[in-house]
Write a structure and sequence with these properties.
This protein has about 240 residues and is α+β, with helices and mostly antiparallel strands. The chain is built from eight helices and ten strands. Strand 8 and strand 9 form a beta hairpin. It is about 30% helix and about 35% strand. Bound molecules: 2-acetamido-2-deoxy-6-O-phosphono-alpha-D-glucopyranose (16G).
Length: about 240
């Protein structure tokens, strides 16, 4: 129950109590939450503290408020869990989960490589590079905004139609090149206005930035990719041995 002389604030303790009820399905999506007054009486705390707990859970996505109606348990879609061991494509990842992979093409052009992009791809500055920006979809819902940079002198014949399907399938099956390894860096960030619009989230909502460098077995760079994944829909799992 609530400990009044704890270093943990009371609103936080109440938030944890409500979260437990949601996680154990005692409170189910769509249920309305008891009124602030009821919690205040039950735990002998102020209504302001109860409101603070509710606000915290609204921000975390556990609850939502409907003007004039009250506070309800939010519908929370399970996060997609991606293992970080294998080198897979988005299309493969979604299919292996029984989800329908998809893309919405935002940009497809050949640009002269900036010095930064050239260095990432091991090519000359101003060399021709495909810049491909796609919203990646799972069962038609936006999961990530992904921008690929690919040397146009190396990977030839890309079209809008191809990148609306699987890029890796084209590289491996049509060009007969074997994608071998990649290194990936993941960091947290918040959605910019543009990312928020494409990903159907609020500006400032948490996202995970992923940078991937992908190579053939002989070390030739295949792609440099910058992606923003929705942090409310994605989590990463890594297996560790000691
Ligand atoms: C994944 C890769 C991306 C790759 C794409 C190919 C991450 C962070 N990125 O999204 O680097 O270009 O798959 O997918 O996992 P595709 O074959 O479906 O086009």
């Amino acid at each position: 129950m609530i400990k009044k002389n704890s270093p943990i604030p009371i609103y936080y303790q109440l938030g944890e109590i409500i979260k437990n009820k949601i996680e154990s399905s005692e409170l189910k999506p769509g249920d309305s939450l008891p009124a602030e007054r009821e919690y205040a009486e039950q735990f002998q705390i102020s209504r302001m503290t109860v409101r603070q707990a509710f606000t915290q859970l609204v921000n975390e996505g556990y609850l939502h408020r409907i003007q004039g109606k009250g506070t309800f348990i939010a519908e929370r879609k399970p996060k997609i869990e991606q293992a970080l061991q294998g080198l897979t494509s988005f299309t493969e990842d979604m299919k292996s989960r029984g989800l329908k992979p998809g893309s919405k093409l935002v940009q497809f052009e050949i640009i002269p490589a900036t010095s930064y992009i050239a260095a990432q791809l091991g090519i000359q500055e101003y060399g021709p590079v495909y810049e491909i920006r796609r919203i990646r979809l799972a069962d038609d819902a936006p999961m990530a905004l992904e921008t690929n940079y690919i040397s146009a002198n190396f990977i030839k014949g890309l079209t809008e139609k191809i990148v609306n399907q699987s890029l890796y399938a084209y590289i491996e099956n049509e060009l007969d090149l074997k994608i071998d390894q990649a290194s990936q860096v993941i960091e947290s960030s918040v959605a910019s206005e543009m990312e928020a619009e494409f990903l159907d989230i609020q500006p400032g909502a948490p996202v995970m930035l992923i940078q991937r460098h992908t190579f053939l077995a002989d070390g030739t760079p295949v792609e440099f990719v910058q992606s923003s994944y929705r942090a409310d829909r994605y989590k990463f799992k890594i297996q560790m041995n000691r």
